[in-house]
Amino acid sequence: MNKSNKILKDSAAVRWLVLVLVSSLMFATYYFQDFFSPLRELMETDLGINSEEFGRVIGLTTIANMFGMIIIGGIILDKWGIRLAGLAFGGLATLGGIITALASMGYFGDDKSSVLAGLIVGRILFGSGLEVVCVVVTRTIVKWFKGYELALAMAINMGFGRLGSALAIAISLDIAGVTVSPAVVFAATLIGLSLIFFVVYLFFDIKMDKQIKAIKAAGQVKGEEAIIAGVEQEEEADEDFKFSDLIKLATNKSFIYIALLCVAFYSAVFPFIQYAPDLLVNKFGFSYVLPDSATVVAFGSEALGSSLVFVVIFIFALSVTLIPNSLKGKSAKRLSVLIIVGVFAVVVYLVRDTLGVWLVNGPKTASLIPLGTIIFTPIFGSYVDKKGKAASLMILGALLLIFAHLSLSVFQSPFLAYMGLLSLGIAFSLVPAAMWPSVAKIVAENRLGTAYASMFTVQNWGLGAFFWGIGALLYKVNPQVVQAISEMRESLLAQGLTSGEVADKIKLLQLEGSLPYYDYTWPILMLVACGVISIFLAFKLKQADKEQGYGLELPSGQKPE
Ligand SMILES: NCCCC[C@H](NC(=O)[C@@H](N)CCCCN)C(=O)O
């Protein structure tokens, strides 16, 4: 390549800097999506928002996307381009964040209905920006990484989102303290900061576009340079949203199965994550506070032991997958696994007290689900690239999902709860790693934009229903708990206690056994149905692939004969 024809994306340092700048939007929006998760109980004790209302706040976040916002956003992105669309939808998400924060601070009124209405309006605006931001970021990564490390960049970008979710679940309650609003203000500030990072990115984007224009104007664009400089135009032509494409997709059996699988699978994962900390606290006796020796003692040594076994199994799974097969010979690999597990087991033993306290904390333990996927998704992704078996891995993922939700609903054992969380984490890595590249095999490249937009739209139908549905069912099957907590809250407030003190007192009363806990059996058992539907759809997908010959079971780049 002629040196004078080099453009910004040819510099690895600039490319990766761009990835960090735009992925910050992904980090912040995923954070904002999930930060309410550990605050479920605090919202009830601090703001009087019960589980059904909590479900409404979370569920309505997706409402605009359920009614075509992603498709509208895609069309706007095609017309306005990355810069304006990013600013518009990133700005919308930020505005939603600000309104949610102001509502939590009582800016629109202190009474429950004003707070609830403000939270809902804020979340609706945030949700309207969220998914389109995800599409804008993906398009930006394609613009900068096509011809370079595209798959890796996408996996790292997804990792930023997962890190946002994990941190949101792990630290929001610590930020909140005894009232909800500090956690909301912090989460909204993160989106604002990420929008500033996006504005910084715009300088690189403008500069590269100018370089491409100059190269073209100079008439120097030939051969390899033509491909590089023409990337943006090529992608814009490729990825334009067309309704005619939608009709073609809707008549493709394999696409229908994978789109429905996307709905069933994600409905059992993202909504579950919103309730996971509260489930662990209410059903398995985990704590909300950290460190609280009283809670740890109440939790019992059996659970502490199980949690440590959970960590060792996690490390074992990690080392088996991470140790490269290039270590020739099974015994060499086995020995390395043994050494790693042995060393970690000793470390785990030495830090058992701290670790034990962390692993009996609901939010911290639940945050391990998205955290684990940061490591596992790229590993499974590279397995799918090299060995194929995508449809079979989706069947396996759905099976693990069923095991996870059964062990978290019908059984009461903390050990099974840890195993359930582990298998949910593996399923949450396995299915996305196999699903998204499979879409690219089923759908022609020039219809991929339309395919993702329509899949995200139907996915949001499921998410909206289950975000709200879990909370609503929890409310329905626990009338006596709702009443007892609400009466206690009213009476403590009447005694002059602050909302923070009320929250603390209610927690204490639950620990002492004077106030009941929520029963999560039915709301989580309902998710087992999603797992069963997922397995059925994954089988149908495998069958359809045999008929239609997309090669989902083959390694990347290999076509069926
Ligand atoms: N290239 C497509 C990657 C999709 C990743 C996938 N994201 C979604 O499905 C979004 N529609 C949902 C965003 C909700 C954020 N909590 C993922 O697995 O995250």
TrEMBL record:
Main location: membrane
InterPro entries documented for this protein: MFS (IPR011701), MFS_trans_sf (IPR036259), MFSD1 (IPR052187)
Subcellular locations according to the entry: Lysosome membrane
Catalysed reaction, written as an equation: L-arginyl-glycine(out) = L-arginyl-glycine(in); L-aspartyl-L-lysine(out) = L-aspartyl-L-lysine(in); L-lysyl-L-lysine(out) = L-lysyl-L-lysine(in); L-lysyl-glycine(out) = L-lysyl-glycine(in)
Gene3D superfamilies with a match to the protein in the record: MFS general substrate transporter like domains
Transmembrane segments: 12-32, 57-77, 84-109, 115-138, 150-171, 183-204, 255-276, 296-323, 335-360, 366-384, 391-411, 417-439, 451-475, 520-539
SUPFAM superfamilies hit by this protein: MFS general substrate transporter
One CC-aspect GO term: lysosomal membrane
Bilayer topology annotation: Multi-pass membrane protein
GO MF annotation, one: transmembrane transporter activity
Keywords per UniProt: Lysosome, Membrane, Transmembrane, Transmembrane helix, Transport
Quaternary data: Homodimer. Interacts with lysosomal protein GLMP (via lumenal domain); the interaction starts while both proteins are still in the endoplasmic reticulum and is required for stabilization of MFSD1 in lysosomes but has no direct effect on its targeting to lysosomes or transporter activity.
Function: Lysosomal dipeptide uniporter that selectively exports lysine, arginine or histidine-containing dipeptides with a net positive charge from the lysosome lumen into the cytosol. Could play a role in a specific type of protein O-glycosylation indirectly regulating macrophages migration and tissue invasion. Also essential for liver homeostasis.
Family: Belongs to the major facilitator superfamily.
Protein's name according to its UniProt entry: Lysosomal dipeptide transporter MFSD1
